[in-house]
What does this fold into?
Amino acid sequence: MAGTIHVVGAGLAGLSAAVSLVEGGARVVLHEAAKQAGGRCRSYYDPTLGLTIDNGNHLLLSGNPSALGFMRTIGAPADALSGPAEAEFDFADLKTGERWRLRPNRGRLPWWVMSPSRRVPGTRAADYLAPLGILRAAAGKGPGQGGTIGESMTCAGPLYDRLWHPVLLAALNTDPKESDVGLAAKILLETLGAGGEACRPLVAVAGLSAAFVDPAVTYLSGRGAELRFGRRLRGLGFGVGRIDRLDFADGAVELGRDDGVVLALPPWVASDILPGLTAPQSYRSIVNAHFALPPPPGSPLLLGVVNGLTEWLFAYPDRLSVTISGADRLLETSREDLSSQIWIEISTLMGLASERPSWQIVKEKRATFAATPAEAARRASAVTDHTNLVLAGDWTATGLPSTIEGAIRSGTTAALALLNGERAGRNMRGAA
Ligand SMILES: Cc1cc2nc3c(=O)[nH]c(=O)nc-3n(C[C@H](O)[C@H](O)[C@H](O)COP(=O)(O)OP(=O)(O)OC[C@H]3O[C@@H](n4cnc5c(N)ncnc54)[C@H](O)[C@@H]3O)c2cc1C
It folds into this structure.
């Protein structure tokens, strides 16, 4: 495009779109309502803890090619993500005290399920075939058309409780029983189904901003993109088949004939600004608990926990942090109650006798869209009825659940659609 492309929203989707556009030779202005970039994936200083923490603990996998490619493009530090050299996941059962390490082998042929020392205790190799039901139900179906995981595999038994439930809940942030098979199938095929090489766990130990946001901002500024913070988009001016004005809280931007727009906003904001847009409407929360105590030596970077409130325990160099997904049931629980219950669990898991250190509870109410069939069917494609407007965001039709990988992929898709002049007009109710 010969004109200027305005990207609105500097979460990972907007940053990814802006990077792809700059790579494609476009002139880019990035507008963000907040004072900083990163959206739901960013770091900030928490005075109670006296530490810089992330907006939420985030887990990536080595089978997230778009996220890793984005980091390479923006020149993120090589050690921004840490994880074991091989795919391995430590687990603990708070009820029985058992510990185990899941170790998928590198290649696609999953021989590891034949080895009792690599799989979940109390399970048989044949149990691992259960997710084939998900793949069968999803095959050849459109978004949201394959039904729920609960309808396609048995959601009970030791392997479900100790592997499929924690893994699917973490990936989908929605109770697996009510989650969409298409989203689950996509995740399974791109990670576990692709072998251990694609599911090494990766954690941004020095923070999400250091890994994804700061290098992207530096990359964009260094290539002439203009970044404007504290700019909230309120509305759009609709011309004939195109957008001709951006109405920000502090003034309007008139668009020239060759100018384009990428809306990389959360779905509830995009729906307000673009009347008639079909987008997800229900969300799931995530609760994080942070404790300002360096982990004991030898602690695994990531520990999956079953039969407790704690689901995943992250051992950052300066703190212990817990993630609880699909956590709507906890939104009304007091922060004090959550913190003390979680600290009892951590003390048990780590054999700690120490007093509860400084702590923080962060409840993200709309952390992700609900990964149900109904919401999966409401995702919008990048192209719109308006020739110069495209959409990005983890909620657009990437086929993936709400994830870093999905957000970054959506940004690239949107940028390419704009650069290539695609138009489909499938997102608006009543459109052909
Ligand atoms: C607690 C938590 C834990 C998570 N854990 C994981 C995980 O382990 N692994 C994983 O892969 N993913 C995880 N995710 C999901 C991941 O963070 C998101 O999928 C991703 O960050 C979404 O990026 P986005 O750019 O699509 O949206 P957002 O990050 O929401 O970006 C939207 C941007 O638009 C801006 N904006 C809003 N309104 C306006 C306006 N009117 N004008 C201008 N700007 C506006 C916002 O300020 C924001 O910066 C987690 C999310 C949360 C909240």
In short: Residues 424-432 have pLDDT under 50 and may be disordered. The CA atoms of residues 163 and 261 lie 42 Å apart. The radius of gyration is 22 Å.
